[in-house]
């Protein structure tokens, strides 16, 4: 009889498409918790794409729920201010709230979030804060201040969380400062969560 943890990988705290599948996944994860897949001694990473998104401001022809979820766009075409793949605010420099705009992204599975990647399109370097929401505590997010040095277009901002910041989450918010590039649109392609892949 094979060991129950020798089967294909299961992401920790993943939610199945049904309540029954979810219960089975949780039971399986509990039985094998902490068995991290490795490759040459290094943990295997899992990157999770968003399944839903909202924003406090957005280009009305480029709605956040259409542009932010899913995998990042590939190639040089994501760099530019006239692309359909990326979010941008309604105004190049948001006239209210000191120019700050908040994007909220939802994910299907709860990860112990170890890294966050913000894929930035045109005019990168505008991320100033991440708010990470823990399941069952929607009103008191973990707030992470960000200094965004991204300058390449397109660019990727990778935020590695300290161990104390690594909380189980399936929802986060990204605060964008639209005044970083006066007169130009700061664009975000997508935001992804990273955890270690866990073998069941
Ligand atoms: Ca701007």
Record the SSE blueprint.
Layout: H1 19-32, E1 38-39, E2 42-43, E3 45-48, E4 52-55, H2 64-67, E5 100-112, E6 115-120, E7 127-134, E8 137-145, E9 155-160, E10 168-177, E11 188-196
Antiparallel strand pairs: 1-2, 3-11, 4-5, 5-10, 6-9, 6-11, 7-8, 7-10
The protein binds calcium ion.
Note the run of SSEs as H and E.
Answer: HEEEEHEEEEEEE
Number of helices: 2
- CATH-assigned fold name: Jelly Rolls
CATH superfamily heading: Galactose-binding domain-like
Taking the sheet with the most strands, its summary is: 5 strands, antiparallel
Radius of gyration: 18 Å
Fraction in helix: under 10%
Q: How many domains, as an integer?
A: 1
Distinct ligands: calcium ion
**Ends distance:** 16 Å
Mean pLDDT: 81
Major sheet: arrangement of strands: 4-5-10-7-8
How many extended strands? 11
Q: How does this structure look, described?
A:
The structure is a single chain. With 200 residues, the protein is mainly beta. The chain has a single domain, classed as Galactose-binding domain-like (Jelly Rolls). The protein is built from two helices and eleven strands. It has helices at 19-32, 64-67, and strands spanning 38-39, 42-43, 45-48, 52-55, 100-112, 115-120, 127-134, 137-145, 155-160, 168-177, 188-196. Strand 1 and strand 2 (42-43) form a beta hairpin. The chain has a five-stranded antiparallel sheet with strand order 4-5-10-7-8. It is globular. Residues 1-33 have low confidence and may be disordered. Calcium ion is lined by residues 92-93, 178, 181-182, 184, 186.
């Amino acid at each position: 009889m094979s060991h129950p943890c020798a089967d294909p990988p299961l992401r920790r705290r993943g939610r199945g498409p049904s309540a029954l599948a979810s219960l089975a996944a949780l039971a399986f994860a509990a039985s094998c918790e902490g068995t991290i897949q490795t490759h040459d001694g290094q943990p295997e990473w899992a990157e999770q794409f968003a399944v839903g998104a909202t924003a406090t401001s957005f280009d009305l022809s480029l709605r956040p729920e259409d542009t932010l979820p899913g995998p990042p766009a590939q190639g040089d075409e994501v760099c530019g201010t006239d692309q359909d793949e990326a979010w941008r605010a309604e105004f190049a420099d948001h006239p209210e709230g000191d120019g700050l705009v908040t994007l909220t992204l939802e994910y299907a599975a709860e990860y112990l979030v170890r890294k966050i990647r913000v894929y930035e399109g045109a005019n990168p370097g505008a991320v100033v804060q991440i708010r990470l929401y823990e399941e069952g505590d929607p009103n008191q997010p973990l707030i992470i201040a960000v200094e965004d040095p991204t300058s390449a277009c397109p660019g990727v901002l990778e935020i590695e969380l300290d161990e104390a910041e690594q909380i189980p989450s399936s929802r986060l918010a990204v605060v964008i400062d639209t005044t970083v590039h006066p007169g130009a649109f700061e664009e975000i392609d997508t935001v992804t969560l990273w955890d270690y892949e866990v073998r069941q």
